[in-house]
Amino acid sequence: MALERSFLIVNLGSTSKRYSVFSENGEEILNEKFEIGSKNFNGTESAIKSAARKIDYIAVRIVAPGEYFQKNRIIDGEFMKKIEEAEKIAPLHVRQVISEIHELKKKFPRAKMYGISDSEFHSTIPEKSKVYGIDFSDTKKYGIYRYGYHGISTKSVLKKIPKYKKIIVCHLGGGSSVTAVLNGKSIDTSMGFSPLSGLIGTTRAGDLDFQAIKYLAAKKKMSFHEMENYLNFDSGFVGLCGEWDFRKISKRKDKRAKLTLELFTHKIKKQIGSYVAAMNGVDAIVFTGAIGFGSSFARKKICENLDMIKKAKILVVESEEERQMFDEVRRIL
After folding, report:
1. Does position 161 have pLDDT exceeding 70, yes or no?
2. What confidence tens digit (pLDDT) does each residue in 280-290 have?
3. How far is CA 254 from the centre of its chain?
4. 199-242: per-residue pLDDT in tens?
5. How far apart are CA 328 and CA 59, in angstroms?
6. Is 146 strand, coil or helix?
7. CA nearest 14: which of 269, 290, 223, 249?
8. How far is CA 174 from CA 74, 102, 182, in A?
9. Which of 192, 103, 95 is closest to 143 using CA atoms?
10. Cα–Cα distance for residue pair 216/320, rounded to 1 Å
């Protein structure tokens, strides 16, 4: 009798990574989370192999710009070539994904591997929301659009709530985004071409005027590559107050920690307001992600003095990205 197939789900975030193993019937037989610096992959491999005698399929969360990555795909030679090109555009996520894929291929050489798109959910965003104000021929030629991310998380929470017409999903964590959902489809989202734009993150700057970037690079005598690293790895919470962990920041009493909290929550509040305007109302606001789900302090700060949402349901829903990724890879097979 053939052994039941096993699925390894690999979810790499900007501040953590998760490994789950599912049996073919959907039973989760392993769920391990590692925050930055806590444990390495070698320790994880032992846990995986003790949970499942063999791994048949691997699904890896892919956060990368480009129309190619707005679709779930098998990880083959073409995929690796494309993602290595994308690493130059979105280093924070893509760099570790490439490294992880190489490790997984070594550890589980017989497993079929698939990339699960974190932006596929946002493929429904209309042109008025996804096109930038540059030469339109360049937009089409180079594929410069608002792709958006956290789509896997958003899909997973939408499954858990009633089918409201107008929903705003706030995924707040190491990286944060706000998405407007109308009749079950994404119509706008705060992240853009790459995950760097939009709200501030634990280490990412979020939206910043190009002229300010140019001026800062000149003053700090930074190359283009150095400035890219600065905006991706040395900004956000870390740049503002020297700490990436929101839990620790929210307990501090100093001015820089207070400014970080105010800046973070204020920008989310503004994003919610813009989507209420775009959809002419809102029926439900959903909070998810490590901060969105885990911090009542953040939710209170965001929702206070926001009279326009008084009639909306405020929902706190835990994201199940690994379960959603398992469902996605099952559909591919």
Report:
1. yes
2. 999 999 999 99
3. 29
4. 999 999 999 999 999 999 999 999 998 999 999 999 999 999 99
5. 9
6. coil
7. 290
8. 27, 24, 26
9. 192
10. 39
Q: Check if 56 is active-site.
A: no
Tokens of 173: 């964590």
- Is the pTM higher than 0.85? The answer reads yes
Reported as half-sphere exposure (CB side, CA atoms, 13 A), residue 188 has a value of 19
DSSP state of 4: P
Domains of the chain: 162-316 (3.30.420.40)
- What does the alpha-carbon distance between residue 46 and residue 1 come to, in Å, rounded to a whole number? 26
Confidence of residue 94 (pLDDT cuts 50, 70, 90): confident
| pLDDT the model gives residue 1 | 40
User: Which among 56, 76, 118, 254 is annotated as catalytic?
Assistant: 118
Tokens of 162: 């009633």
181 bridge partner residues: 167, 186
Query: What pLDDT is attached to residue 53?
Result: 76
Alpha-carbon distance values, 311 to 19, 79, 152, 185 (Å): 39, 46, 27, 22
Rounded (10°) angle between helices 151-158 and 321-332: 100
Q: Which of 88, 51, 85, 44 is nearest to 68 (CA)?
A: 85
Q: Decide: residue 149, CB within 10 A, 0-12 exposed, 13-18 middle, 19+ buried.
A: buried
Question: In angstroms, what CA-CA distances link 73 with 58, 235, 242?
Answer: 12, 32, 38
Q: Are 61 and 152 in contact (CB under 8 A)?
A: yes
The DSSP string of 248-270 is HHTT--SHHHHHHHHHHHHHHHH
pLDDT band at 251 (very low <50, low <70, confident <90, very high): very high
The gap from C-alpha 183 to its chain's centroid, in whole angstroms, comes to: 22
